[in-house]
């Protein structure tokens, strides 16, 4: 089985990122091992970083599109590497805390920066000097940190269903989302968990479509139950650690500056019906990355890479092609150059905070407190309406490795 021991093959960050982030060669637990698989062969290298509670198999539709197979290279004859011709080689891996990778017990061993260093160690292990780096959800947060740590090693960056972390991890506050969260807490069986995951990761319209004589929801439900039953449950320490990484994640202005200095293009891809990572946060992140970013807004939910695989894959191919053609950022971006007064001044405040401006620091603090109060008010309203039922039913539940990441598109 292919494993990479992280912390062994570390490289220093570029000068652009050295003042913005923790050095890549800082200590990492040398006993942590990452399980990975490579697919396809060719000179174009793509690193895929998956999200919370999911394993590398979640990238199935993209791996198949890039390489024409979902059979790992370990399971086929080596043949011609085709390094000088055409073709794409993909690497997908299990993050620490899930799947066949090591599961640290302490929350302090999980952060998006630490997990980005894991990914960089894997690049070193593979001997890849540069790669296209694509991430989904929490994986997109990790991908941002990879791009900020070593921008000189990133050929392009794709952020699928991403947020800026922290309070942006709050799901959309409405009755449907509260119902999903309530059912998630109550789920004790594969059947209950599968039903919740469907509503969490897909748009209702997609689930209600007919595939032949059956609704897609019924077909996916059976696949999910089978996957949950066979894959087992993610450990509590792994889930808690990965959640900790999401809550403590932040894309700082030095991170943004480091990414902009890398000379690569960015594609921010999002499902507009995502109830986990709200699209407004993704648009805000894309605007911060202007002019190197393009916003791709698709009709889908959180798992848009499965719900709309053709459109997502085309957006990724477009990004790889644009990077190969050295397309200029201004020819790539589809974002307006006319930012509002608030956005312009917010960027100015963020920059001056780094320089120690007390006025901008107070403004930023007030802004964050205001957002927190809005969320707290929404939570209190929902809690008041549903408190009695929740208190009677709330019990600790072990959370499993996300079964939602299966190749779910039936034709």
Automatic annotation (TrEMBL):
Molecular functions (GO terms): catalytic activity
InterPro entries the UniProt entry points to: AB_hydrolase, AB_hydrolase_1, AB_hydrolase_fold, Epox_hydrolase-like
Pfam families (UniProt xref): Abhydrolase_1 (PF00561)
Matching Gene3D superfamilies: alpha/beta hydrolase (3.40.50.1820)
Location of the AB hydrolase-1 domain: 51-309
Protein name: AB hydrolase-1 domain-containing protein
Lineage: Eukaryota, Viridiplantae, Streptophyta, Embryophyta, Tracheophyta
């Amino acid at each position: 089985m292919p494993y990479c021991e992280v912390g062994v093959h570390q490289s220093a960050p570029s000068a652009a990122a050295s003042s913005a982030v923790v050095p890549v060669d800082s200590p990492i637990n040398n006993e942590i091992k990452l399980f990975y698989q490579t697919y396809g062969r060719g000179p174009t290298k793509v690193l895929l970083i998956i999200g919370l509670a999911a394993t590398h198999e979640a990238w199935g539709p993209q791996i198949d599109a890039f390489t024409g197979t979902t059979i790992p290279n370990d399971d086929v004859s080596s043949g011609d590497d085709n390094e000088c011709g055409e073709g794409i080689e993909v690497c997908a891996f299990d993050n620490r805390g899930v799947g066949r990778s090591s599961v640290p017990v302490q929350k302090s061993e999980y952060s998006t920066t630490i997990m980005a260093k894991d990914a960089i160690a894997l690049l070193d292990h593979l001997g890849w000097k540069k790669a296209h780096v694509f991430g989904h959800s929490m994986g997109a947060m990790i991908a941002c940190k990879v791009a900020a740590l070593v921008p000189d090693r990133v050929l392009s960056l794709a952020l699928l269903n991403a947020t800026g972390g922290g309070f942006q991890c709050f799901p959309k506050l409405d009755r449907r989302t509260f119902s999903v969260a309530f059912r998630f807490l109550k789920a004790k069986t594969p059947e209950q968990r599968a039903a919740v995951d469907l509503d969490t990761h897909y748009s209702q319209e997609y689930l209600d479509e007919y595939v032949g004589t059956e609704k897609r929801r019924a077909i996916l439900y059976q696949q999910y139950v089978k996957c949950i039953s066979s894959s087992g449950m993610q450990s509590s320490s792994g889930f808690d650690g990965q959640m900790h990484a999401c809550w403590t994640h932040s894309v700082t202005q030095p991170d943004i500056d480091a990414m902009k200095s890398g000379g690569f293009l960015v594609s921010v891809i999002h499902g507009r019906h995502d109830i986990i990572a709200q699209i407004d946060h993704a648009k805000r992140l894309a605007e911060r990355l202007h002019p190197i970013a393009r916003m791709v807004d698709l009709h889908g939910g959180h798992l848009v890479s499965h719900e709309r695989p053709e459109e997502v894959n085309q957006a990724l191919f477009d990004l790889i092609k644009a990077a190969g053609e050295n397309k200029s950022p201004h020819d790539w971006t589809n974002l307006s150059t006319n930012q509002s007064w608030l956005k312009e001044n917010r960027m100015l405040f963020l920059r001056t905070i780094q320089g120690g401006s007390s006025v901008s620091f107070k403004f930023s603090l007030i802004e964050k407190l205001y957002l927190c109060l809005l969320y707290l008010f929404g939570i209190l309203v929902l809690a008041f309406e549903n408190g009695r039922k929740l208190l009677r039913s709330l019990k600790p539940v072990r959370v499993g490795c996300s079964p939602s990441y299966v190749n779910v598109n039936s034709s």
